[in-house]
Amino acid sequence: MDFGRRVLVLRHRRIAVRLQWRSVVVCTVLAVAIAGTAVLAMMTGSYSLSPGQVLSALTGRETDIVHDIVVEWRLPRVTAALVFGAALGVSGAVFQSLLRNPLADPGIVGFTQGSYTGALIVILVVNGTYVQLVGGALLGGMATAVAVYVLAYRRGVQGFRLIIVGIGVAAMLESLNTWLILKADLDQAMSAAAWGAGSLNGVSWDQVVIGGACIAVLLLLAGMLSRPMRQMELGDDAALSQGVRVSPARLGLLLVGVALTATVTAASGPIAFISLVAPQIGRRLARTAGITLAPAAFVGALMCLASDYLAQHVAPTPLPVGIITVVLGGGYLGYLLFTEARRRL
């Protein structure tokens, strides 16, 4: 038992992992929902398939057009939605835990816009490859993080001050991104603008493998830093008293969060609001005292996959996934602001 909550302890030699039973159950249910949505997404399209055909193609028992449709065309998009959604969910969880604010989001504090700026420069100026695009997005996001951190630093970094500074930096970067698109050639500008809405169109296995490998490493690092992250939610003094090196841990979490956002932005453009909404939904489902990474990752993956399905097959015309996440996330943000305002009355 852990303060009245049932926990599951997994041990391997000197490594022990503590998991709350409710979080395990919630993640299991979300995984089942993700699997069902993924199969539905691979069934639906101009060439409809049955669940049996999809499962046969995934297990290698189909060698004709069904195999090409499922494995080569639809599976990369589904995998990208799952991996990128999980990355955004964990990124949002990291920032909301660090800043101890449910409104903390890489998009709100400017990190997503910085990654978009770096990627735009590679697209419009350098006309680089996908690997260069990833590098540009990472550099843009990291540079923005350093700028926001330095501008917000006054004998330490307070969450509210960092959010206010980040909002200002985000507004300036939005203007810069708009200027870059307006000054570009028409074809490049149209391509960059469509990509900037956040889209999984044209995602290939190369992008999924490269981006997925980077995200897997970053998620592992986030998991390793999750314990000091939870301890810092109690305050820096309490974390220091428990032996946490606060400044290095905060810097490491900040870099991991920015890198997750930048990797997704480089592959699919800025997909808005998943990093804001997923951690809060995961926290409410798991009923944890603070932000936890696993429920946020599962909710982010399900939200991105479901939004992409709605954008492709339910909307009157195929839309970028970012438009659907903006609609869903905007509604949730309004609800969150309303409940926070009522709580303080």
Summarize the structure.
This protein is mostly helical and about 350 residues long. It is built from 14 helices and two strands, in the order ββαααααααααααααα.
What does it look like?
- The chain is mainly alpha-helical and 345 residues long.
- It has 14 helices and two strands, in the order E-E-H-H-H-H-H-H-H-H-H-H-H-H-H-H.
- A hairpin with a 2-residue loop joins strand 1 and strand 2.
- The longest helix has 35 residues.
- The model has no long low-confidence stretch (mean pLDDT 85).
Structural class: mainly alpha
The fraction of residues assigned to DSSP E strands is under 5%
Shape from CA axes?
A: globular
Low-confidence stretches: none
Oligomeric state of this protein: single chain
Structure summary, number of beta strands? 2
C-alpha Rg, in Å? 20 Å
Span from first to last CA?
36 Å
How many helices does DSSP assign? Answer: 14
Write out the strand line-up for the largest beta sheet, numbering strands in chain order. Answer: 1-2
pLDDT average, as an integer?
85
Order of helices and strands: EEHHHHHHHHHHHHHH
Amount of helix: over 70%
